Fold:
Amino acid sequence: MKGAAVFPGSRRLGLAGNVPEPQMEGPQDVKLRMLQVGVCATDREIASFVFGTPPEGFDYLVLGHEGFAEVVETGPEVRDLKPGDLVVPTVRRPCADPACVACRHNRPDFCITGLYREHGIVSMHGFMTEFVTGDARYMRPVPPEVREVGVLVEPLTIAEKAFIQAERIQTRLPWGKAAARAVVAGAGPVGLLGAMSLRVRGYDVTVYSREPETDVRADIARAIGARYVSAQGNTPEQMAAGIGNIDLIYEATGSAHLAFGMLNVLGSNGLLILTGVPGAHGPESLDMGTLITKMTLKNQCLLATVNAGDDAFDQAIVHLTAFCKRWPDAVRSLITGRFTLEQFEMPIRNAAGIKNIIEMAS
Ligand SMILES: [Zn+2]
Ligand SMILES: [Zn+2]
Structure:
């Protein structure tokens, strides 16, 4: 079968025509026919050979970790899934270290050894192919109402994992959930999906991003009842003026400079959530004394988060279903480019639009 592959040895990208069709191995396994796979900056970095590890015995890695699929076959011991069901496969698989408390609790998203495997990233083929098999417990069921946009579940899990933790952290405030104010920095898919999740959770939301206020991203923010402020011509301080105490900032730009700059506008008892992976861009100056003083005097928290557990996947599926009911047009307009498997290099080489996806089958 065909697969969108990166060949790190020869530093090239191409469609592999002879990817072995995966076999059902255990009685709990299911076989999936891939429907849609999202493309994101992680795929672009793998395609630029920054990271990405082929599975053992292969000189290539099939790309794709934002999957959406239909079950076509189930093993004899699978109870909760049947052929025709829609699922999103989770991305990360536990490490083998008996001492890794996170993986032994089925939370490889918190793995402490770093020896986990990830579909389409580390030591496992990804989802930009025709069929995938795996244990049914890694396949999260998706209702048919979200079939058109099921590919958005995985990028939404980043926000869901962050907000599940944020709500637990903020139980430190004894007065419970007040009308909280949030700022989302960055209006890419992770930012806009995060903004939708915060709206559903009852937050007053401001989206702050570099695009002008006439951009489609600003229209999407306004359509979900959020405010949009362009970073062109507005400093973080100007953006924050008039919002009141900012309780939560969800940083989804991948810019280290902007992320720490947002600390200047974070309110008392506030939480700054980091989701970007900017990599090393050389030293930048930061007045750490002022920063730590302000964070301490304002009881602030810094939370960085990666990957997601089953709880975040299931929450993402519930919330995406809610978004589709509340703002069907806004959710649909997040997907700006659709490509066939044969065309997979186009959205990898050109990051135009909001979310580009590969459609494997209709
Ligand atoms: Zn991604
Ligand atoms: Zn582990």
Summary: The pocket of zinc ion (ligand 2) is lined by residues 94-95, 97, 100, 102-103, 108, 111-113, 116 (CB under 6 Å). The chain has a mean pLDDT of 95. Residues 3-142+327-359 form a domain with the Quinone Oxidoreductase; Chain A, domain 1 fold (CATH 3.90.180.10). DSSP finds eleven helices and 19 strands in the chain.
